[in-house]
Every structure is written in C-alpha cells, then in structure tokens.
Design brief:
Blueprint lengths: L1 H23 L2 H17 L1 H31 L15 H4 L1 H25 L17 E5 L2 E3 L1 H7 L5 E5 L1 H18 L4 H14 L5 E5 L4 H8 L12 H30 L7 H30 L1
Antiparallel strand pairs: 1-2, 1-3, 3-4
Helix pairs in contact: 1-2, 1-3, 1-10, 1-11, 3-5, 5-10, 7-8, 10-11
This protein binds protoporphyrin IX containing FE.
Amino acid sequence: MALTGLFLCLFLVGHLLGNLQMIFQTGEEGKRIFNEYAYFMTHNPAVKVLSYLTYFSILFHAADGIVLLVQNRRARPVKYAYSKPSANSSWTSRYMALLGTLVLVFIATHMSNFWWKMKYTTEVPLHSYYSETSQDTLYLTHKGEQITTAQLRMIGDTEGTQIIMRADKMNQSIEKEYNSYISENVLSEEQLLAFEEAKNKQIRKKDEVLGEGYKDLHTVVLQYFSKGNTTESGIPVGLLGTLFYVISMSVLAFHLWHGFSSAFQSLGLNHPKYTPLISIFGRGFAIVVPLLFAIIPVIIYINS
Ligand code: HEM
C-alpha cells in the first residue's frame, strides 16, 4: 500500500503540473499547448507504461485497503469495552478507508468525464490546426491517404491524421530565397560556400510530418467547468461539477494528511531526524497539491 500510495503521489505531481497549464496558458496558444501535451501523454510509449502503472496502483491500493480493513475487523471481533481512539490516533488516520473510498469515487467519475471520452469516444471535438494559406506546401493525410480539409471536416476525427510538409515545394522556395540573396549581395568565395552549406542543410530529402491530429481535450475541460454547462431543464452541471471537484480535493487532502507520512512508517523508514521532516513535508504536500488542483476548475468556472 505504501509503495503504490507514494507512486500515486508522484502521479499527482505530474498530473497537477500538466493541468496547471490550463490556467497559466490561455487563449489559442494555451489550447494548442494543452492539446499537444494531452496527445503526447496518450501516445508516448514511455508515458503509456506509467499510465498502466497508475491504473494498477489505484486498483491495488484500493483492493489492499479493503483487505486490511477486513483483517483489522477480524482481528478484533469483540469491540473494546472502553474506547477513546482520539487519545492515541488522529481523526484522519481512523477514517482512511472512508476517505480513500471517496477519492476512488472521485477518480471513477473524473475518468469517465475526461479520460474515457478522450480514449474511447468520438465525442471530443477536434483541434483545427490547418492553415488554409499554406495549402501549397502542406497537405493532409488520414490513415495514410491524402485528403482535403473539407474531407477532414466530414470525417470529423483527426486521430490518425497527419499534416505533412511537401519537400519539393519547400526546396523550391529555399532555392528561390537563396538565389535572390546571392544575386542581390556581393559575397566572397568563402561566404558563398558557407551560404551554400547552410542552404543544403535546409533542403529536405523527403516530405516531413509537422503534426499529428489530436483531440481538443482543452475545450472539453473548459466547457465542463463553465457557467453555460447546464442541462435542458436548467441544472447547473458546470457549477455542480466545480463544487464536486473542490469537495473531492478536500477529501484528498485529508487522505494525504495521514497517508503521506504513514507510507514511510509502513516501509520501516523511521529516523529520529528525518521522520519529523517527512511528516512536515507530507502535511505541506497534503495541503498544497489538492489546493492547486481545486483552484483549476474554480478559475475556469469564474472566467467562463
Ligand atoms: C482540477 C483537477 C483535474 C483536472 C482538470 C484533471 C484533468 C484530467 C484530464 C483532462 C484527463 C484525461 C487525460 C488524458 O486522457 O490524456 C485526466 C486523467 C486522469 N486523471 Fe485527472 N484531472 C484533475 C485532477 C485529478 C486528481 C486529483 C486525480 C487523482 C486523485 C486525477 C486522476 C486522473 C487519472 C488516474 C487519469 C488517467 C491518467 C492516465 O490515463 O494516465 N485527476 N485528468
């Protein structure tokens, strides 16, 4: 439990840094950066391994928690005649199973909102990156076949789409620029050679993939936490979703408050000097990480 718990803490830091991009980078640029990041996170083989490790850790951590709870109950079938748990244990430590279950409910809801949509549905709209003005040097392919922008809109799914730079057209424009420069400037033999070398470096041997189609997860997240996200009958889904995230993050904070330092104790890492430091760091972690997670939907909601 301790090892999976600590690994999940690392996941939280990575996930938080990725998500904070949503509030620090705004506008079209922010949208592009976040969507490219989400694309990388779902397609890079090394990240995929980490993702599977995360899913495994969540399931193992939860299952092991249940096993421990059952074992503890079995170990003491008859309750203490006199029990005052607050005398030697904190509130959070006694409710770890409940807090953990609530975090699990949050994760399941959260993953069905974003992760499931991203991975298994075509509900996520597409990020359009195609510039009409560069049609001469760029072309699009979908699953290997060349297509037009209009066809791409009809397909409605950029997954498997590539934006490709045409080598011959690019080389033509490089040659043109080079020729006009040397005809307009008086250059020494040496400068000409250096210039020729620089030009040859720019010359493309084959068409180049400039970008891959990706889903617009940024818009999905922003719309989810927006004031305008209401059902037909007027239920404010955006507001309720934001509140749900804020409440869930306080539950996560309580879970981490005890969990972080307790993981080190479970691993037997007790040290007169370092244990108090770990405990202070753990408490800081339990406050800062959930707090930063919680402000993301709040800011998105306020700005919507
Ligand atoms: C404001 C808070 C958060 C936002 C905006 C957010 C956003 C997202 C988004 C957009 C995805 C889908 C990414 C993808 O499939 O590429 C995702 C995945 C995920 N989120 Fe969050 N998240 C937040 C907080 C959390 C928290 C607190 C946890 C855990 C307690 C969590 C656990 C996960 C997990 C396990 C995945 C799947 C990751 C993977 O496939 O590798 N998220 N999140």
